[in-house]
From TrEMBL:
<protein>
    <submittedName>
        <fullName>Exopolysaccharide biosynthesis protein</fullName>
    </submittedName>
</protein>
<keyword id="KW-0677">Repeat</keyword>
<dbReference type="InterPro" id="IPR018357">
    <property type="entry name" value="Hexapep_transf_CS"/>
</dbReference>
<dbReference type="Pfam" id="PF14602">
    <property type="entry name" value="Hexapep_2"/>
</dbReference>
<dbReference type="GO" id="GO:0016740">
    <property type="term" value="F:transferase activity"/>
</dbReference>
<keyword id="KW-0808">Transferase</keyword>
<dbReference type="InterPro" id="IPR011004">
    <property type="entry name" value="Trimer_LpxA-like_sf"/>
</dbReference>
<dbReference type="InterPro" id="IPR001451">
    <property type="entry name" value="Hexapep"/>
</dbReference>
<dbReference type="InterPro" id="IPR051159">
    <property type="entry name" value="Hexapeptide_acetyltransf"/>
</dbReference>
Length: 185
């Protein structure tokens, strides 16, 4: 079993330095002007890493997870609204000036049901992973889902409630399930 660390963040990162953190070396803050809600949770295991490249802001009940060797990178000036969850088992990159609405789910993996069906859960869960890249200046509407292997181009807008299964072109509006291009701007 891998050791995991849960960090409950506060309005100041200084708060984090006073907490007992098992894998502190796997979390990197390159700026100290972060506004993390007191209910933000960062879950990381010893083989994973999380990097905040600049100022970020989170609302209540945000969960950021990097597990099983996953890497999560969040650039500067990123806002993540309430009840959003980001889970990296491979690699998730969130570009600068990105706005993420409430209840957004970002997962770079799916369960490998064939392996789990044949071996059962006694041998652990199996996953199929592909990296996610969200470029800069992206808006992701509330209750949207971003799934593995997706690149969202610079300046794109994802309408509320959309499920993104394929790449999104830069400076375009996508909406629906599955998300489809509505128009360019």
């Amino acid at each position: 079993m891998k050791f995991k660390t849960i960090i409950k963040a506060s309005y100041s990162i200084i708060f984090l330095s006073f907490q007992k953190v098992l894998h502190w070396e796997h979390i990197k803050f390159t700026a100290f002007k972060n506004l993390l809600s007191v209910s933000t949770k960062i879950l990381i295991d010893k083989s994973s890493s999380v990097k905040f490249a600049g100022k970020i802001c989170t609302e209540s009940n945000v969960e950021l997870k990097a597990l099983n060797g996953g890497k999560l990178f969040i650039a500067e000036n990123v806002f993540i609204n309430s009840n959003s969850i980001v889970v990296a088992l491979d690699n998730i990159h969130i570009g600068s000036n990105t706005l993420i609405g409430p209840g957004v789910l970002i997962f770079d993996h799916d369960h490998d049901f064939e392996k789990d069906k044949n071996s059962g859960t006694k041998n652990g869960r199996h996953f199929v992973t592909k990296p996610i890249r969200i470029e800069s200046d992206v808006w992701i509407g509330g209750n949207s889902v971003i799934l593995k292997g997706v690149t969202i181009g610079k300046g794109a807008v994802i309408a509320a409630g959309s499920i993104v299964l394929k790449d999104v072109e830069p400076y375009c509006l996508y909406a629906g399930n599955p998300a489809k291009k509505i128009r360019s701007y």
